[in-house]
Amino acid sequence: MNTQESVQATPAQESPARKEFRRKRVKRIKAALLFLLVFFLVVPNLLCAFLLYKLYQMNKSLNLLREEIKISQTEIERRTKETTTVLVDEYGNPINMGTETVELPDDANLPDEERYPGQQLVYLTFDDGPGKYTNEILDILKEHNVKATFFVLAADGYDAEYNRIIAEGHTLAMHSYTHRYSEIYSSLEAFENDINSLSAFLVEKTGVRPRFYRFPGGSSNDVAHVDTADMIHFLTQEGYVYYDWNVSSEDASKELKETNTIVKNVLNGIGNKSNSVVLMHDSASKPTTVEALPIIIETLQKKENVVFLPITDRTKQVYHVKPELPQEEVKAPEERSEEPEARSEGVYEEADDENKEDAKPEDVQDAADESADEGSED
To answer: Which residue of 158, 221, 314, 336 lies most exposed, with the fewest beta carbons within 10 A?
Structure first.
């Protein structure tokens, strides 16, 4: 009994070395517990942050991919439309067959007057839109199965109208970014900037770069402070084709024209012309133009030899100021004739003097300011 008691050591009798060993072990256990605590708190948060960042990167990549797919689909639809057979109804008007790709007919690339021999070709054109009447005009055109051309401005809030014009087989063409004559025609640089700004705007809205242009006030306007030849040279170099008109509805004047007056102006202007480019407007201040449109269409369709067409590469160019030939077609001085030659996309036709201006100079500027302020009216 005494031997066992002498062998067992009391805590107080524990050696200093033993105490130090125990102290270090407890310290290591605490450090291990602290490390585990920090590890399980910090590492999951870091992992979550990393995963969130990767998710953000994936979403960004998906958005870019969606945009590329959207642009690709738009381009596919555009090319499909260009390779679609043009069928016509009993009046010779194109029938929209959707985006089904079929074999092109042999005459697909012929000028319009050769594709429709003996027919009266009518190109309805609308300036200064889109506006609050654009959809109503599109509805009328759709109801009568007629295609037209819209020379548009840059207007926010009308994305659907821009795209509807293209989707329904009409031609989207350029008129002006601002439609403020004092700015557009102040210098050649200002003129170029106006066109480039509008082109970029329409590409952003529709994915399509229009090729056709109409001078605000026409190419023969007398308010420009720039040589018209310089402006035409710029258009030619950039691949644009400009169109004036040879029939005017005269709805561009400051005073609101009566519906019957617009109908009479258009029908009398077309008369027996074989090729008529008709000037009208779809701005907010032209309600009587909308009222006159179905009367004009229905009256002409009764003639049975009238074909309504949009302006395309196959359309004869109607101009007030003589166009510049593309560089590759310019002849040496001794080879030139007095009149411009035919081009691959059509031939030139100078408008009659009476159709060279749609409004007096003061009315032109009033119409310009009115169109520029149209967005606030809508």
So the answer is: 336
